Amino acid sequence: MTAPTKPPHTVPAPGSPDRSPDGKHLHTPVITWFDEHARDLPWRHPEAGPWGVMVSEFMLQQTPVNRVLPVYEQWMSRWPRPADLAAEAPGEAVRAWGRLGYPRRALRLHGAAVAITERHGGDVPSDHAQLLALPGIGEYTAAAVASFAYGQRHAVLDTNVRRVFARAVAGVRYPPNATTAAERRLARALLPEEERTAARWAAASMELGALVCTAKNESCHRCPIAAQCAWRLADKPEHEGPPRRGQTYAGTDRQVRGKLLAVLREAHTPVPQAALDRVWHEPVQRARALDGLVADGLVEPLPGARYRLPL
Question: Which residues are tagged catalytic?
């Protein structure tokens, strides 16, 4: 007698993402929902091209869409191709980054543009390994560009996707603080076989986490897979791990670095130390923040206690 096959709607025990289920029952409702509710974002337009997708992925790391949109539009207008950015000084990328935060991303994006121009004739490569070899690009960004720009089949695991999978499949409120090997195995197991469908699934599951399956105040009544969600079916058990604290900003070195960079972005000539000293009252923290900016390559020190964005 042939052993009965496992029902496709079987849900793994809470907290056990290794028991990878068949994702077919999730694909259609999530992708259908995405077709109806996806936001109209400029990097999703065909004219954005792979470069527009790459720029958006750098900017969207730890930064909400509403803050990214105006900077993205200005960036793409000024530098519509990687070679356009590569021809500029890296300090101009830092200047144009504005107040998006985590400005090292601007330097990394500039470095990627230079490498794309030198190694790939100015075209963002479609090969995942070649993307991964670009400076400043890790596994997530390589997979996202290959998937969203070129329609390839890759597991794209950002915070939103990880939260959707944690709730819908593993039955827990939040994913681990850092991406685990078990999460990667689960994401690969849930990928549709057909390449274009897999790319659509990657974008759709990410959008579901951003708009519906949010970290707080989730909208289960709007969720297309609420009836199959393991966390909801288990009556939404509370998070059992360490408390999840939001990142503070006020009074941190990050805030001081931002204030110092704001002065340098506004200036088109070297800035004297005295002008930087005025932006923060505490000299030890101010000096530490400035030293960190220099060490990160975001600021260049010059003779005579003057500073500028990198050339």
Answer: 57
